[in-house]
Specification:
- The protein has 136 residues and is α+β, with helices and mostly antiparallel strands.
- The protein has a single domain, classed as 7,8-Dihydro-6-hydroxymethylpterin-pyrophosphokinase HPPK (Alpha-Beta Plaits), CATH 3.30.70.
- The chain is built from 3 helices and 7 strands; from the N terminus they run E-H-E-E-E-H-E-E-E-H.
- Helix 1 runs antiparallel to helix 2.
- The radius of gyration is 14 Å and the shape is globular.
- 32% of the residues are buried.
């Protein structure tokens, strides 16, 4: 079994309900959710919006490969109403955003997936929840 850390964010609709639904779907389709951080409200990062984000992180025990985990999180995003992905640093409002942060101690750098997540250290809305579940 592998340890996978995922960042969750939402800034449209019922954000708390969306994050909880995403956690249920992660538990059902990726693996056992072992820890979930507190939910924290944050300002948008990388774009302007009147909508604040609700962010969290979770630790999942999975038997899936990193690429399989990516495909499942993308499917969960679509199921929860996300219709377009951010491209080339152009961000926008979204009902759900799921980012793979860490997968064991694995380092991957492909066009499809980079692990550890390349921007996580610059983002408090990722690092604060991540630290919470890594130390608890």
């Amino acid at each position: 079994m592998h340890k996978l850390y995922i960042a969750l964010g939402s800034n449209l609709g019922n954000k708390e309900e969306t994050l909880n639904r995403a956690l249920e779907l992660i538990n059902k389709n990726i693996g056992s959710v072992l820890r979930v951080s507190s939910f924290m409200e944050t300002e948008p990062w990388g774009f302007d919006s009147e909508n604040t984000f609700l962010n969290a992180a979770c630790l999942v025990e999975t038997s899936l490969s990193p690429l399989q985990c990516l495909k499942v999180t993308q499917k969960i995003e679509r199921l929860l109403g996300r219709t377009k992905k951010s491209r080339n640093g152009i961000y926008h409002d979204r009902p759900i955003d799921l980012d793979l942060l860490l997968y064991d101690d694995l380092e991957i750098n492909t066009p499809e997936l980079t692990l550890p997540h390349p921007h996580m250290l610059e983002r408090d809305f990722v690092m604060i929840p991540l630290r919470e579940i890594m130390t608890s």
